[in-house]
Design brief:
The chain has 80 residues and is mainly alpha-helical. Helices cover 79% and strands 0% of the residues. The longest helix is centred in the last third of the chain and has 23 residues.
């Protein structure tokens, strides 16, 4: 999830979408975690920490749209 926040900050929605495409179904779990962490930060009055989480959640529709349009790169699953 923190990698997604970093990718969004550095590469915008397209950067985060590339990572979401690689994560597949696991990306939704990262979004849920971002929602929870945002809520916790807000409760504890830690607005600066909440910014990245909020940005990810707010951008999620655009990120997933871009991720679905992007070709998925094969991931190596065997050791050489």
């Amino acid at each position: 999830m923190h990698q997604l926040v970093r990718a969004l900050a550095k590469g915008g929605e397209a950067g985060a979408a590339a990572l979401v495409a690689k994560l597949g179904a696991r990306a939704e779990t990262a979004r849920e975690l971002a929602c929870r962490l945002y809520t916790i930060c807000e409760r504890k009055k830690r607005a600066s920490d909440a910014l990245g989480y909020n940005a990810l959640v707010q951008s999620w529709p655009g990120i997933t749209r871009l991720a679905q349009a992007a070709p998925v790169q094969a991931v190596q699953t065997t050791l050489i």
